[in-house]
Design goal:
about 280 residues; alpha/beta; Cobalt-precorrin-4 Transmethylase, domain 1; Methyltransferase, Cobalt-precorrin-4 Transmethylase, Domain 2; 5-stranded parallel beta sheet; 5-stranded mixed beta sheet; transferase; EC 2.1.1.107; 4pyrrole_Mease_sub1
Length: about 280
């Protein structure tokens, strides 16, 4: 990296907090603003989902503080994490809160930002590549495709209490969205699949489970809605994972560019190359 790339980018001032998205894992998906923050921060409070390769871009003398949360395991409380940011900023440090994906997409960045506002701490938000888009792209699955899908729904598989959110209108989601992208859905995949089937989605509709998206550990399982929970368990898949439901999953046979780099033969059979739409 040359200094010229960073010329004119914002300065992380002492006593300020930047809420930054690190993307799904591949350090190549860090934005210039994210790299700029890593080069300046005195302390980096990071999630478990932030890949070590991203943290390697931190200033050599920066202090790394782990603030990761994992379902079913001892984890710091969100309020404590938010107040830690306040404490570090009030100590005059340049604080980087580094989160996997995008801080405002199921990342609780909004809660942390509100705490900073509450305590009069100046902050900046740096968006990141969300796993529900970038992670699926690394699996060769586009969330939109002309004539195949005109809407996408992003939802979370569990709420603040670790259960399937009661507020989700499964009938509305099932009827209104050809593609459904689910974050943090692995633990309750059987219940979620049952809700979608009850709401009218087809048992044979394609599903993909993408684990550790965009990293060297990425694994992709292609299955169906009816078989998804059992297949994921049988394959030994574990979070972090993104689950996607919809006909766009079938495009992976033609668009698995990472697989092609490893020798997989891709095929566009079943899809037109001129209009980009699925054949009847």
């Amino acid at each position: 990296m040359t200094e010229g790339i960073f010329a004119g980018l914002p300065v992380l001032e002492p006593g300020h907090v930047w809420l930054v998205g690190a993307g799904p894992g591949d350090p190549g998906l860090l934005t210039l603003h994210a790299l700029n923050a890593l080069r300046q921060a005195d302390v980096i409070v990071h999630d478990a989902l932030v890949d070590s390769a991203c943290l390697a871009h931190a200033r050599p003398d920066a202090r790394l503080e782990f603030a990761g949360k994992r379902g079913g395991k001892p984890s710091p409380k969100q309020r404590d994490i938010s107040l830690r940011l306040v404490e570090r900023a009030r100590a005059g440090l340049r604080v980087l809160r580094l989160k996997g994906g995008d801080p405002f997409v199921f990342g609780r960045g909004g809660e942390e930002a509100l705490t900073l506002v509450e305590h009069n701490i100046p902050f900046r938000v740096v968006p990141g590549v969300s796993a529900g888009i970038g992670g699926l792209a690394y699996a060769g699955i586009p969330v939109t495709h002309r004539d195949m899908t005109q809407a996408v729904t992003f939802l979370t598989g569990h709420d603040a209490h670790g259960i399937v959110p009661a507020q989700i209108d499964w009938q509305g989601v099932a009827r209104g969205s050809p593609v459904i992208v689910m974050y943090m859905a692995m633990k309750h995949l059987d219940r979620i699949a049952a809700e979608l089937l009850k709401a009218g989605r087809r048992p044979e509709e394609p599903v993909a489970v993408v684990c550790h998206a965009s990293t060297a550990q990425q694994r992709v399982l292609e299955t169906t809605l009816a078989a998804a929970a059992e297949a994921a368990t049988a394959a030994g898949l574990e979070p972090p994972a993104i689950v996607v439901l919809g006909e766009v999953v079938r495009l992976r046979g033609a668009l698995d560019w990472l697989g092609a780099l490893s020798g997989r033969v891709l095929s566009a059979e079943g899809f037109t190359q001129t209009t980009g739409s699925a054949r009847a």
